[in-house]
């Protein structure tokens, strides 16, 4: 059975480590803030100038002046700090962010990502994704495996405008988990390491355009 958006972000949260500074992209990745493992000290950063984002607020906690880069209301943990967007992007471009978790419209088998626009649709700007994929130490992508019309989103070549090339380290979809191994295939290959409960490797292959390897032992997400 495919993973829900909540289950995808629970799996993504398992990549967090104590002391990490992490940027969460707009959309599904923001749910990771609700799944940080108990006892783990993680600092969430937002491009609009906040380090120390907490869980999403209850109705009583909502502060309309406290928002993330996606204009969602958030909370701030004890010790949080506020600063300008210039300082925020200096953190990103300077390599001071340990990990980012982003959504995507397409990921290619080489680790390219397209997540900022669909040609012909109006967008307000590219946001911080291009800086994040270039400056962050580890890039994790969370997305549905296929689009609403069934088309593959994990593809051989992205046909949407690229956000970055060869930058995705891990891909987590509603069907499976893939980790990029730079030592494989003369430039790197994604390796299927986990599948959703009830999903088979053959089903993942049938619904994927990209080429990938399969680990010797494929685990079940959440098992």
Describe this structure in words.
By secondary structure, the protein is α/β, with parallel strands linked by helices. It has helices spanning 5-13, 85-93, 129-135, 201-206; strands spanning 21-24, 43-46, 50-53, 76-82, 99-102, 106-108, 113-114, 138-142, 154-155, 170-172, 176-181, 189-195, 213-220. The protein has a ten-stranded mixed beta sheet, sandwiched between helices. Strands 7-6-9 form a three-stranded mixed beta sheet, with no helix packed on it. The chain is globular. The two termini are 13 Å apart.
Layout of SSEs?
Layout (H helix, E strand, L loop, with lengths): L4 H9 L7 E4 L18 E4 L3 E4 L22 E7 L2 H9 L5 E4 L3 E3 L4 E2 L14 H7 L2 E5 L11 E2 L14 E3 L3 E6 L7 E7 L5 H6 L6 E8 L3
What's the short version?
With 223 residues, the protein is an alpha/beta fold. The protein has helices at residues 5-13, 85-93, 129-135, 201-206; strands at residues 21-24, 43-46, 50-53, 76-82, 99-102, 106-108, 113-114, 138-142, 154-155, 170-172, 176-181, 189-195, 213-220. It has a single domain (5-220), classed as Glutaconate Coenzyme A-transferase.
